[in-house]
Backbone:
């Protein structure tokens, strides 16, 4: 899969290869105000991809294992791993991703023979921690890279500044990992991750907030607050999003299925309710979406 370096109104991407950077490949960010298509499975050979999710929540899938990434999290795809969004759409939110090229054979025992960026990446790989809590400084450093790359300074000075900023970003990541290792695991995150899997696996059922709270051994008010804190969505909002996601899949897979039946199977109170909810989350009514996809 070729690297996508196309910029749009909601995607801003730097292709460092155009200016001959030795290690840096791509820095990108998207700021989606609605769900987009899913990210197909792909592999980056001899590259590490580091994602910082500033707001919202997103499912990632690596080697057939799913991870829920929420606002403030860092997620790392190590070299040679098959990864994508696992069939889930790219959610509304703000995400940064950085891809760095590593030596073809990162076989040195301590990384001392590598350049500074490769050495720092070697340490990230050695820590073997792909999903952890970040900090707000990470976003500012990445924004500084965007600003620095597009300024009018002499090329070599600009290159030095960019490399120093990326080194600072990687050092911050290592500090975040060390901090989280000292604090231990997050049981609240594990509870909500299990809840999200339950919702996804039972989307055709009438899922109540009371049931979800009971499964996590929390009061309803505590459960709703925790869910919003860790995912960026209320439980009801998340369930509706997943129902619309499933409805869109059904319209593509079974074009002859009546919209009223889809509404009934996904527990919408009426076809009109289904239509209004889908329009809220996608901008298109079911009938319009179906017509556009089956022209």
Residues:
């Amino acid at each position: 899969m070729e690297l996508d370096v196309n910029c749009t109104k909601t995607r801003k991407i730097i292709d460092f290869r155009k200016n001959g950077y030795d290690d840096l490949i791509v820095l990108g960010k998207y700021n989606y105000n609605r769900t987009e298509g899913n990210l197909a499975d792909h592999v980056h050979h001899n590259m590490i991809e580091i994602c910082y999710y500033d707001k919202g929540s997103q499912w990632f899938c690596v080697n057939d294992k799913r991870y829920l990434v929420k606002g403030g999290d860092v997620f790392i795809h190590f070299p040679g791993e098959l990864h994508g969004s696992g069939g889930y759409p790219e959610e509304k939110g703000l995400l940064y991703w950085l891809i760095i090229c590593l030596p073809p054979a990162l076989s040195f025992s301590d990384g001392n023979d590598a350049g500074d960026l490769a050495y720092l990446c070697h340490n990230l790989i050695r820590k073997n921690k792909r999903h952890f809590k970040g900090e707000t400084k990470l976003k500012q450093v990445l924004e500084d890279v965007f600003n620095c790359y597009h300024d009018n300074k002499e090329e070599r000075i600009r290159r030095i500044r960019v490399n120093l900023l990326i080194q600072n970003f990687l050092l911050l990541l290592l500090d975040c990992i060390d901090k989280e290792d000292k604090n231990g695991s997050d049981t609240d995150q594990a509870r909500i991750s299990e809840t999200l899997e339950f919702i996804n696996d039972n989307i055709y059922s009438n899922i109540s907030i009371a049931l979800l709270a009971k499964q996590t051994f929390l009061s309803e008010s505590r459960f709703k607050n925790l869910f919003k804190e860790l995912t960026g969505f209320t439980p009801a909002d998340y369930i509706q999003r997943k129902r619309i996601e499933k409805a869109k899949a059904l319209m593509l897979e079974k074009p002859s299925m009546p919209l009223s039946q889809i509404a009934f199977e996904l527990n919408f109170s009426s076809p009109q309710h289904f239509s209004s909810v889908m329009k809220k989350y996608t901008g298109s009514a079911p009938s319009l979406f179906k017509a556009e996809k089956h022209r």
Summary: Residues 106 and 122 are 8 Å apart (CA to CA). The mean pLDDT is 88. DSSP finds ten helices and eight strands in the chain. The two ends are 28 Å apart (CA to CA).
